Amino acid sequence: MTTLSEKLHVQPGETTRAPSADLPAPSAPVLSVRDVRISDRAGDREIVHGVSFSLTPGRAVGIVGESGSGKTLTCRAALGILPAHFEVTDGSIEIDGRDITHLSQTQWTALRGATISAVFQDPASYLNPSIRVGVQVAEVIRVKKGVRRREARRQAIDLLRAVHLRDPELVYGQYSFELSGGMLQRVLIAAAIAAGPRILIADEATTALDVTVQAEILDLLADLREQTGLALVVVSHDLAVVAQLCDEVLVLRQGEVVEQGPTRQVLHDPRHEYTRLLIAEHEQYGLEKFLVPKEDA
């Protein structure tokens, strides 16, 4: 049986197919968010006002907006890790056809990592500095797949190679403080996909990285969806990131979806003033390369 790391491994010089080119269509959604509303019980106010989207295998949805717009809360609701005092007060979320509303902690533990996983902005804060990074990836494999330690180590090294880390055997034995930010993010991605999830949430996963490393991580995420059919939710304040990766985009402002649609359509023909403002602000930071003339769109 082909492992995820084997599916991902692309030799230097090889080319990958266009996103979703060889995926059967249509497919049933692996993630369905319907009119989700999230409230802060402590402040007795609604923070997220009716977010809806669905995601099928090999597709990517982007969620953009300013800080505090509800992007991360929406994704944390899908992961079942809302902060204290916050709760989903209306709407529904289904993962792989399963309503998550009444899942027990045991059911959530089984679901996270194996069906839905996530990568966040600061990888160092999610890795134990006193344990070698490869051992942490191997432990995810051992726990989620039930394999022996030696086999978990082999699969972990394969994954580190698959996320394009040079000398994966060396990296396996290193600690987080010995690695660069880009290398740490690759390690975190390896851990996130170790159990073969169907959905990956990338929440500001490239925000703290320099431009060159950011481009490499975006290429890696594109490889993931192309080679494995992984569905992506990409959370970012950077429209250029969403433009590069996503098929559909939601624009959030103060917890409300002000615009939603195919990424190219939204970027070329924004209907809402706030979307137009975001585009104008981001054109000088790399978005312009994705804004081909309308007659070519």
UniProtKB/TrEMBL annotation:
Keywords: ATP-binding, Cell inner membrane, Cell membrane, Membrane, Nucleotide-binding, Translocase, Transport
Domain of life: Bacteria
Pfam families: ABC_tran
Descriptive protein name: ABC transporter ATP-binding protein
A GO cellular-component term linked to this record: plasma membrane
Membrane topology per record: Peripheral membrane protein
Main location: membrane
Organism: Streptomyces liliifuscus
Domain (ABC transporter) ranges: 31-279
Segment forming the signal sequence: none
Chain intervals for the UniProt region annotation (Disordered): 1-26
MF terms (GO), sorted A to Z: ATP binding; ATP hydrolysis activity
InterPro entries documented for this protein: AAA+_ATPase (IPR003593), ABC_Ni/Peptide_Import (IPR050388), ABC_transporter-like_ATP-bd (IPR003439), ABC_transporter-like_CS (IPR017871), P-loop_NTPase (IPR027417)
PANTHER family according to UniProt: ATPASE AAA-TYPE CORE DOMAIN-CONTAINING PROTEIN, OLIGOPEPTIDE TRANSPORT ATP-BINDING PROTEIN APPD
